[in-house]
Design brief:
Length: about 230
């Protein structure tokens, strides 16, 4: 008997087949009752379904279905926070002390600011972009719950930008297109930052950082208003 077969038999000895096992519905009920006592009953199914979604997410499958205890526990904590409608203090922003601004000068979000001749805000914009992206990569990227909340937050920003862009473009005359575009930039970046995930407030620099991340990825998210030649 070769070594591979011996190893397989050793593993198989650890398996137990229970032909009298409870059916799937009863097993699901037991899992739910055992693991959702910290939630209101109305939230129990959502909690279990979301965690199953986490286990089956592409990030987990692509990682050979390897789930760390720390990662799963963090997802449970994040999900519980959402479903119990509690609030948290927003994570401390990552400070990048040696930020090399010149490395970002060809980024689309920078080019869009330069289209309206608004170099005065470039340093601030690059800082917010870089530090927010770092926060997203370190704090949010590995949690599907927070990632989905961030996606929805970004969608809300895009809708506000689109509506106000159309309004501002209707008012912008040919002779003041650039100045009107600067005003539009200031208006959007100074809007209320809104809510995100379980956080009642979002720091303004994080809000503007998300704006610039969107501008860096979305071609239609621009600051230069359309010319109104009417």
């Amino acid at each position: 008997m070769n070594q591979d077969v011996k190893s397989l038999l050793k593993i198989l000895q650890k398996f137990y087949i229970d032909h009298n096992a409870i059916d799937d519905k009863e097993y699901y009920k037991q899992i739910k009752n055992r693991n959702t006592t910290h939630l209101r009953p109305i939230r129990a199914d959502q909690y279990i379904h979301t965690l199953f979604g986490y286990i089956l997410s592409p990030e987990i499958i692509d990682n050979k279905w390897e789930i760390s205890y720390e990662g799963f526990r963090e997802e449970c904590i994040n999900l519980t926070s959402v479903l119990t409608e509690t609030t948290k203090v927003f994570p401390e922003k990552v400070k990048l002390d040696n930020l090399k601004y010149e490395e970002y000068l060809e980024n689309p979000f920078v080019e869009k600011i330069r289209e309206i001749n608004y170099d005065d805000v470039l340093i601030e914009a690059i800082t917010d972009f870089a530090e927010t992206r770092e926060l997203v990569l370190k704090e949010f990227r590995f949690s599907p719950t927070i990632s989905n909340s961030l996606k929805n937050y970004g969608e809300d920003i895009k809708k506000k930008h689109g509506t106000k862009y159309r309004q501002a473009s209707r008012k912008a005359a040919l002779e003041n297109q650039i100045e009107a575009s600067k005003d539009f930039y200031d208006e959007i970046t100074s809007l209320d930052s809104g809510k995100f995930h379980i956080f009642n407030t979002v720091p303004q620099d994080i809000y503007t950082g998300v704006i610039h991340m969107i501008a860096d990825e979305e071609d239609e998210f621009v600051w230069l208003l359309k010319k109104n030649d009417v």
